[in-house]
Amino acid sequence: MKDGRIQQVGTPLEVYDRPANVFVAQFIGTPPMNFFDATVDDGQLRAAKFSIPVPAKNRAAVRGGQKLPAGIRPENILASDEAGRGETAVVQGVVDIVEPIGHQAIVHSRIGSDTLVAAFDAHRMPKMGETIDLRIEIDALHLFDSATEARL
């Protein structure tokens, strides 16, 4: 619910995996979904200081020059040596904060003006100030319309 209106109905996992809009995506999940502004350019999502391929599932729904919010959940950002599911794109970030929480470490990395929060295995915990490779699972990206904030 937002402003008295139902935003999405579904099982918890359906809502988590396929949020209907930006509000639902931000509301569900701890740590919350990462968001960054991107522009579609030649099959790439270009953020301020990095670019990653547009997921195959979204290619027909986007056009060149389109600006949109993109989201990725922390568990879909992997350490450089972690095995991913499907295609990944590597971006480099500088570690700002590391939060050890038992079996996981919540890692906040800065890439230009964007911050990406990842959930790493506690045994792969980087140090603050370290430059690390982050592997983004491309098929796990969520793209949203910039005007309506609805999922594409």
Note the beta-strand portion.
Answer: 35-45%
Q: Which term fits the overall shape?
A: globular
Residue windows where pLDDT falls under 50 for at least 5 positions: none
The SS-based structural class is mainly beta
Helix content range: under 10%
- What value does the average pLDDT take? 96
- Helices and strands, in order, run as HHEEEEEEEEEE
Please summarize what this structure is.
With 152 residues, the protein is mainly β.
Model description:
The protein has 152 residues and is mainly beta. 8% of the residues lie in helices and 40% in strands. It has two helices and ten strands. The strands form two sheets. Strands 3-2-1-4-10 form a five-stranded antiparallel sheet. The protein has a five-stranded antiparallel sheet with strand order 5-9-6-7-8, with no helix packed on it. The chain starts with 11 loop residues before the first helix and ends in a 9-residue tail after the last strand.
Descriptive labels:
five-stranded antiparallel beta sheet; 8% helix; single chain; 152 residues; 40% strand; mainly beta; 2 helices
How do the strands and helices of this protein lay out in sequence?
Elements: H1 12-17, H2 22-27, E1 34-41, E2 44-46, E3 51-53, E4 67-72, E5 77-79, E6 88-100, E7 104-111, E8 114-121, E9 131-137, E10 142-143
Antiparallel strand pairs: 1-2, 1-4, 2-3, 4-10, 5-9, 6-7, 6-9, 7-8
